């Protein structure tokens, strides 16, 4: 099974190729303003590094978020287009579920373990890990974490999220650093999931966009195609 995976929901944008569960090529770059424009170029670079053509790929995988609105759109749009044009099956996995797949839990139980991913400056996305992630993530303000999570909770996430959680609640939580969702983790787990057509890839948007907050107009994702046809 040859899998091409893209993760662009977090501050670290990654593209990876795995062959039979072994990652043979991966590229990463900090998510900056122009990073989403490089997704397709990174894909071509990783295919060349793996000695494969796009037609050799058996499965495409995308990080569906939550996370960066622009990053998610860029990654999903690219994977959807490649899947549609080349009739390659696709699979989408949430960003926190990707993190949970390789969370540093060796020798520990998963009781009261929570995955964290930065959202806005004052909020984070949170998902409980009870053996496996269940339900959709929620967005919580850092000062409100103690009201929603038990004091015994162990937080796993990128350093900025853990730092903000500790600043809001000193010595309240046990924390363990995680670099965030990576395409290499997604590529390894994608082969075990049920694939579908490109059209099955849908983003997980938890937070409102800046445009929605500034205008007070909120649009459901399902309505967008209808609005575009007007």
Helix-strand layout with pairing:
Elements lengths: L1 E6 L4 E8 L2 E9 L8 H12 L8 E5 L5 H18 L3 E4 L1 H7 L11 E6 L4 E8 L1 E2 L4 E4 L3 H4 L5 E4 L1 H10 L5 E4 L5 H8 L19 H6 L8 H5 L2
Parallel strand pairs: 1-4, 4-5, 6-10, 10-11
Antiparallel strand pairs: 1-2, 2-3, 6-7, 7-8, 7-9
Short description:
The protein is of the alpha/beta class. It has helices at residues 39-50, 69-86, 95-101, 145-148, 159-168, 183-190, 210-215, 224-228, and strands spanning 2-7, 12-19, 22-30, 59-63, 90-93, 113-118, 123-130, 132-133, 138-141, 154-157, 174-177.
Q: Using only CA atoms, what is the Rg?
A: 18 Å
CATH superfamily of the largest domain: ATPase, nucleotide binding domain
CATH architecture grouping of the largest domain: 2-Layer Sandwich
* Structural class based on helices, strands and sheet pairing: alpha/beta
Number of helices: 8
Q: Order of SSEs, N→C?
A: EEEHEHEHEEEEHEHEHHH
Would you give an account of this structure?
This protein folds into two domains: 141 residues, Nucleotidyltransferase, domain 5 (2-Layer Sandwich), CATH 3.30.420.40; 73 residues, no CATH class. Helix content is 30%, strand content 26%. The strands form two sheets. Strands 6, 7, 8, 9, 10 and 11 form a six-stranded mixed β-sheet that branches. Strands 3-2-1-4-5 form a five-stranded mixed β-sheet, with helices on both faces. A hairpin with a 4-residue loop joins strand 1 and strand 2. It is elongated, with a radius of gyration of 18 Å. The N and C termini lie far apart (42 Å).
């Amino acid at each position: 099974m040859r899998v091409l995976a893209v993760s662009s929901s977090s501050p670290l944008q990654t593209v990876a190729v795995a062959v039979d569960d072994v990652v043979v090529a991966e590229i990463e770059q900090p998510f900056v303003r122009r990073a989403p424009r490089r997704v397709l170029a990174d894909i071509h670079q990783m295919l060349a590094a793996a000695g494969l053509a796009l037609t050799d790929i058996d499965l495409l995988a995308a990080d569906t978020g939550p996370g960066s609105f622009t990053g998610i759109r860029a990654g999903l749009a690219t994977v959807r287009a490649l899947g549609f044009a080349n009739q390659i099956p696709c699979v989408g996995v949430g960003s926190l579920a990707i993190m949970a797949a390789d969370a540093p839990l060796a020798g520990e139980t998963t009781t009261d373990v929570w995955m964290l991913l930065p959202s806005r400056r004052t909020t984070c996305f949170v998902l409980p890990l009870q053996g496996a992630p269940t339900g959709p993530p929620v967005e919580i303000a850092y000062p409100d974490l103690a009201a929603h999570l038990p004091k015994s909770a162990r937080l796993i996430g990128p350093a900025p999220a853990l730092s903000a959680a500790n600043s809001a609640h000193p010595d309240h939580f046990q924390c363990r650093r995680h670099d965030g969702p990576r395409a290499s983790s997604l590529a390894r787990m994608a082969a075990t999931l049920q694939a579908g057509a490109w059209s099955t890839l849908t983003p997980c948007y938890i937070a409102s966009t800046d445009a929605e907050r500034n205008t007070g107009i909120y649009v459901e994702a399902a309505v967008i195609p209808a609005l575009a046809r007007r």
